[in-house]
Amino acid sequence: MPVQADASVWGALLGSCRTYDNFELAELVAEKLFKLDPQDVTSYVMMSHVYANAGRSEDVSKLRNLMRERELKKLPGHSVVEANCRLHRFLVDSKPRHSWPTV
User: Fold this and answer.
1) Which terms in the Gene Ontology molecular function aspect does this entry carry (predicted)?
2) Which residues of the chain form CATH 1.25.40?
3) What percent of the chain has pLDDT over 70?
């Protein structure tokens, strides 16, 4: 490769490995990402999904333990909706709130 790949290029490759179930390459790419940016939780979560899709629950557990050891936490997903000139933020696992019917 004429240009040295950075973490974003390796991350895109890991995402493709997940999409196309290329487990062997995903492990190599994840190792590279963990060295390049050990605090980026996205790489760990993506590799966890690769392991889960391959039915390797023990590896999922090991990876989650590694995340805990390194104090890495995935932020919950959210959506933002504008209604009546106000922004309303919803977390993925949000419980209904009193303001929801007006949104």
Assistant:
1) RNA binding
2) 7-69
3) 88
